[in-house]
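Record pair follows.
FIRST:
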Amino acid sequence: MDDLFNPYYVDIVVFWMIYLLLGLGLNLITGYAGQVSLGHAAFYGIGAYTSAILSVKYGWNAWLSMAAAVVVTFLISALFGLPSLRVREDFLAITTLGLGLIAQSFFKNADITGGAYGIDSIPAPSLFGTPLKNTGYLLLVTVVLIVAVVIMKKMTGSRIGRAWMTIREDETVAQSMGINTTYYKVLVFAIGGAYAGAAGALFAHKVSFISGESFGFTVSATVLSMVVLGGLGSIFGTFFGVTLLYMLPEMFRLFEFELVDPKYLDTYKMMLYGILMVLIMRYRPKGLFGKNGTKLVNIRRSAVKTLDKGGDRVA
């Protein structure tokens, strides 16, 4: 089955799906709950290193190590979300940026992460004794992505999602409606981080080698650009933004445009992202497919919907 498709194109699709998982997690945090994060790559790295360390250094089965990576990232991301209880907006963005840089420094220097040498020989998960590679790995990532989308749709359509959106629009009003903002803000960081942790684990077992360079600020900025471009608070927007900004550089590579020198491709890519961000912030602050903010009267209605039928307020 691994020989059905060209491995190069399979890799492109696999990494596109991994970025989709990253984008969905960040859209939960920033798009739905309104908590600006510039350190999303830290969660990505935590998931990758956790799975790699457990499988390489402790001999865990790849499936178990990947599952453990999601759980560990969920817990650590909840701790990363604690600053959101004290700071907001620009101050929260700078705080998460600092936490992301601290995490990358840890990845690069700690003995358990292999320091500057990273971790190699990360095994691919096996199914009935056959390692999943190329097409097999593509199917695995596809299943994970479908499950992630279904879970996200159910969450954002439930009282949890309505509570997040109410906090995004006006945290003070959310508190006055009885919504436990502390609980929901920490929860969204934990769940959004778990999505990134799953992406990191899939990335680690796909490439078989990881180092701290793969989880820097550039990754956080890239994913944020994708989410903002596609639309805050929109699953379809995340798919659109990730697809556009991820596939565009690949189009340059595939068609070898003479105007794009391959050695300057990353520079051109970041310039393009910057220009698009400026244009989007100027003309479409919520992104191309982002949902418009609700008016104060609708905030009240949204908060009321989070109440149980029996009259109990959101915990």
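SECOND:
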Amino acid sequence: MSSVVLTCGYSYHTQRFHDHYSTGLPCYLFRLQTEGRCEADIAGRRVSLATGDLLMLPPGTVYGLHVGEQNAAEGSIASGDYYLLTVSDWLDDWWGRADRPLLARIDPDEKLLGLWRLMIAEKRRQADESEGGPVSGELIDYLLRTLCLYLERAVTETAAPSAPPPFAVLRLKRFIEENATGRFKIDDAARHAGLSVSRAVHLFKEHVGRTMMDYATEVRLSAALERMKYTSFSLHQIAENCGFGEYSYFHKVFKLRYGTPPGEFRKRIRENESGTNLL
């Protein structure tokens, strides 16, 4: 059976709102708080939810949502969240692979929210008979799998045995990974994470163990290796496309990291592929 998304969307509450499944959820529920705050009852326990709090609840979980109760004294209510209710054979298998937390704190970065928005848009298309069909159902199935795996990684990153890095550091890492091969600047990374440059530099070194530029260089080298192995781009093109700029700088950094010039390294790759041995 392919995945069936029962409902999926974004909600923003400015009035009191309550939802109850006193006999247990009939499906899987994913809910990510992105704005404001609210409260939820999970298996008999009342919890407060703020930005970044993720609920992942399997069928049968007794659940209730309460928006506005803790805001009553303040005179204003604000709570925004992305939600998804679904049933899926694949999800049954995925859920059983590990001990999943019912409540976790993650970084609601733009990639994750973009995936959720794609799911919402495709669900709307599926509901339109003129745009639905087998392709839409298959796409929803794969979007659900991608979203779950992305959530799994996000939960793992913030639930490591050692002290997890702040959300800001995770945002810095994601920004570097996505922009290192372009015109990457530390100022832009710091702004993306909502930090001053000095604070960003300090936090990153403290939690990652290397500077942001060192991390960016590792990302660039990894991208360069892929292009050397799987494309016919010249080494000068690779140096430029991977963010190194001048080939001379790429040559220097590559040799320092791998102990051999990039030209010699690529020659070995091609000789190995042709069945010969350089040594």
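COMMENT: The chain has a mean pLDDT of 89.
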